[in-house]
Amino acid sequence: MTLKIACIGAGYVGGPTMAMIAHKCKDIEVTVLDINEERIAAWNSDRLPIYEPGLEEVVFACRGKTLFFSTECEKKVAEADVVFISVNTPTKTRGVGAGYAADMTYWEGAARMIAKVSHSPKIIVEKSTVPVKTAQAVERVLSNNVLNDGARFDILSNPEFLAEGTAIKDLENPDRVIIGGRQTPSGLKAIQTLKDVYAQWVPEEQILTSNLWSSELAKLAANAFLAQRISSINSISALCEKTGADVSEIAKCIGADSRIGPKFLNASVGFGGSCFQKDILNMVYICRGLGLQEIARYWESVVTINNLQKRRFVDIVISSLFNTVRGKKIAILGFAFKKDTGDTRETPAIDVCNGLLDEGANLAVYDPQVTEERMKTDLSLDKFEWDHPYTQRKAKEVDDHIECCDSVYKACEGAHAVCILTEWDEFKTLDLKKIYDSMVKPAFIFDGRNVVDGKHAKEVGFVFYGLGKPL
Ligand code: NAD
Ligand code: UGA
Question: What NCBIfam families does this protein map onto (predicted)?
Answer without folding.
Answer: NDP-sugDHase
